[in-house]
Amino acid sequence: MINSANQHRLRFLLILGTLSATGPLSIDLYLPALPQMVRQFHTTTAMMQLSITACLLGLAVGQLISGPLSDHFGRRKPLFIGFIVFGLASLAIAVSHSVSLLIGLRFVQGLAGAAGQVLSRAVARDLFSGKALTQFYALLNSVNGLFPILAPIIGGFMIKFVPWSGIFILLGVIGFLLSGLILIGIPETLRPENRLTGPVFQSFLSFGTLLKQQGFFSQLLITGVVYGSLFSYIAASTFIYQQLFHLSAQSFSLIYALNGLGIVIGSGLPARLTGISTYRQLSSGIGLCMADAMALLLGAYLHWGLVMIAVLIFLLVIGVGMLLTLTTAIIMGETTQNAGGASALIGLSQNAFGGLSSPLVGLFGTNSLAPMAGLVLIYNLIAGGLAYRVHHQLHK
């Protein structure tokens, strides 16, 4: 079965890349509609940004459920059930008339869609190891990065002709289509002899075993703050470009799509830099993000123009894309068992920091670059310190 999967690597790459794009599908597609939704629901920007946070928290909690369950039951069943519920939740959001209900349903949507994120990483770990695993994650993240390019363009185009609810109807259709794709395109990659045995609840005890591994918790924090950097940008982007620089929803969608291309470029870099040590790549990526954040803070103070700010943000997302591939490959590469549990903890860390970042950016204001840039700088200072500590602990 696994040999068959290796023979169809491209097919696996495309399917897993699509399944892992739950985040971009759930968030980037409706970003251009956020200002419209603020007006229609008669609410505040910070309150509507909680719909991003709710989805991210759902993604985090859902991964903690589907990851260990997949170590027990295999990968396919949690994937299929997750995307059926994702489709149903998306359709329910489309007909909601209360911002509180919308936020609650967004949590359910993230909870269900989490299976795609966590299990795409686990399936890859079932199939590959070592440099091959890093290269596959680089390709997987590159495919995943296509969705931030396409989603806001589609979303920006749709809201010219349909209300915001049409975007969530589309998400419901996508959820059901992916459920069918799982049935026909994903074989079971976790052999029965490699699954956890005993009562189901014991699957969740694997978290404790993983967290006891030297450096594991610090590496989780690193990937979390890197993801926090990404969502600091995502949460602020629509308001920075549309309110600060007065771009239309369609122009914003094009710039956001260009930054998605930056994530694709960055995600693929580790596969091309195999001659450079992982730690050097990691420290270089963190350094790039720190320097970029400081430049953005300067730009906020000096009121730099659109072109300069857009270039700096493009460089930032390249660095973030590179770091996401590296941190995922490092953690999963050092996990020989309980790949679902390890992937779930990655998702928890990433989505928790992502969920924290969205309201923080809104809380400190959306009329300046400074809150976003300051948060990115703080996150990468933390990542740099942790990376240095872990490296020297493991290489004494």
Automatic annotation (TrEMBL):
<protein>
    <recommendedName>
        <fullName>Bcr/CflA family efflux transporter</fullName>
    </recommendedName>
</protein>
<feature type="transmembrane region" description="Helical">
    <location>
        <begin position="253"/>
        <end position="273"/>
    </location>
</feature>
<dbReference type="GO" id="GO:0005886">
    <property type="term" value="C:plasma membrane"/>
</dbReference>
<keyword id="KW-0812">Transmembrane</keyword>
<feature type="transmembrane region" description="Helical">
    <location>
        <begin position="136"/>
        <end position="159"/>
    </location>
</feature>
<dbReference type="InterPro" id="IPR036259">
    <property type="entry name" value="MFS_trans_sf"/>
</dbReference>
<dbReference type="InterPro" id="IPR011701">
    <property type="entry name" value="MFS"/>
</dbReference>
<feature type="transmembrane region" description="Helical">
    <location>
        <begin position="370"/>
        <end position="390"/>
    </location>
</feature>
<dbReference type="Pfam" id="PF07690">
    <property type="entry name" value="MFS_1"/>
</dbReference>
<feature type="transmembrane region" description="Helical">
    <location>
        <begin position="285"/>
        <end position="304"/>
    </location>
</feature>
<dbReference type="GO" id="GO:1990961">
    <property type="term" value="P:xenobiotic detoxification by transmembrane export across the plasma membrane"/>
</dbReference>
<keyword id="KW-1003">Cell membrane</keyword>
<dbReference type="GO" id="GO:0042910">
    <property type="term" value="F:xenobiotic transmembrane transporter activity"/>
</dbReference>
<feature type="transmembrane region" description="Helical">
    <location>
        <begin position="12"/>
        <end position="34"/>
    </location>
</feature>
<dbReference type="InterPro" id="IPR020846">
    <property type="entry name" value="MFS_dom"/>
</dbReference>
<dbReference type="InterPro" id="IPR004812">
    <property type="entry name" value="Efflux_drug-R_Bcr/CmlA"/>
</dbReference>
<feature type="transmembrane region" description="Helical">
    <location>
        <begin position="220"/>
        <end position="241"/>
    </location>
</feature>
<feature type="transmembrane region" description="Helical">
    <location>
        <begin position="165"/>
        <end position="186"/>
    </location>
</feature>
<comment type="similarity">
    <text>Belongs to the major facilitator superfamily. Bcr/CmlA family.</text>
</comment>
<keyword id="KW-0472">Membrane</keyword>
<feature type="transmembrane region" description="Helical">
    <location>
        <begin position="310"/>
        <end position="332"/>
    </location>
</feature>
<keyword id="KW-1133">Transmembrane helix</keyword>
<keyword id="KW-0813">Transport</keyword>
<feature type="domain" description="Major facilitator superfamily (MFS) profile">
    <location>
        <begin position="12"/>
        <end position="391"/>
    </location>
</feature>
<feature type="transmembrane region" description="Helical">
    <location>
        <begin position="78"/>
        <end position="97"/>
    </location>
</feature>
<dbReference type="InterPro" id="IPR005829">
    <property type="entry name" value="Sugar_transporter_CS"/>
</dbReference>
<feature type="transmembrane region" description="Helical">
    <location>
        <begin position="46"/>
        <end position="66"/>
    </location>
</feature>
